[in-house]
Amino acid sequence: MAKPLRLVIGISGASGGIYGLRALTILKRCNINIESHLIVTRNALLTLRQEFQINKKAVYELADVVYCPQDIGASIASGSYLTLGMLVAPCSIKTMSEISSGVTSSLIGRAADVTLKEKRKLVLMVRETPLHLGHLRTMVKLAEFGAVIMPPVPAYYSHPKTIDDIVCYTVARALNLFGINTNSIASAWLGINSIHKK
């Protein structure tokens, strides 16, 4: 069997840690040969406990490999460690700003910086609204560096029945950006006329 591909997933302290959790569960459900490498910040664990009553052990069990958020000597802090790229879901404004500065004091920032310098895919699910000019300029800067800015905006054309339907569809779209087939989770949009066909 071929060695698994690796995808780094960062969960920052912004509201919406469910996006990161769902990314981990979708990778398992799709039954594909991709290893999840997880970084969860201290603030993320606090937010997850507040929003979903989930503890650190339960979060860690969703991933294949877990790193201490301050371990800047971890394998994913080196460009020689091959990955598909990195998804930060959600991405707080603090994390976004650290990545854009290139002055990385945490593993989530360092891993993102490595992803950019190695020309790999970096997807940031920035979770903040409204956005002031400084936020927008930082996003432009990151886009110029090669990052994909993907706020978790709900899609209603898929006719979601639950909040989790909305979350899963959004995360599936983010994973698609890495070339990961998630059709078993969220079917591709076939056009408005397709909803009238039997």
From TrEMBL:
Protein name (database record): Flavin prenyltransferase UbiX
Family: Belongs to the UbiX/PAD1 family.
HAMAP family from the UniProt entry: ubiX_pad
Class of enzymatic activity (EC top level): transferase
Keyword Flavoprotein: yes
Pfam families: Flavoprotein
Reactions catalysed according to its record: dimethylallyl phosphate + FMNH2 = prenylated FMNH2 + phosphate
Domain named Flavoprotein: residues: 6-169
Keywords recorded for this protein, A-Z: Flavoprotein, FMN, Prenyltransferase, Transferase
Lineage top rank: taxon: Bacteria
Record: residues binding FMN: 13-15, 41, 92-95, 127
Gene that specifies this protein: ubiX
Binding site for dimethylallyl phosphate: 157, 173
Alphabetical list of InterPro entries matching this protein: Flavin_trans-like, Flavoprotein, UbiX-like
EC number: 2.5.1.129
Keyword Hydrolase belongs to the record: no
Role summary: Flavin prenyltransferase that catalyzes the synthesis of the prenylated FMN cofactor (prenyl-FMN) for 4-hydroxy-3-polyprenylbenzoic acid decarboxylase UbiD. The prenyltransferase is metal-independent and links a dimethylallyl moiety from dimethylallyl monophosphate (DMAP) to the flavin N5 and C6 atoms of FMN.
Lineage per the UniProt record: Bacteria, Pseudomonadati, Pseudomonadota, Gammaproteobacteria, Enterobacterales
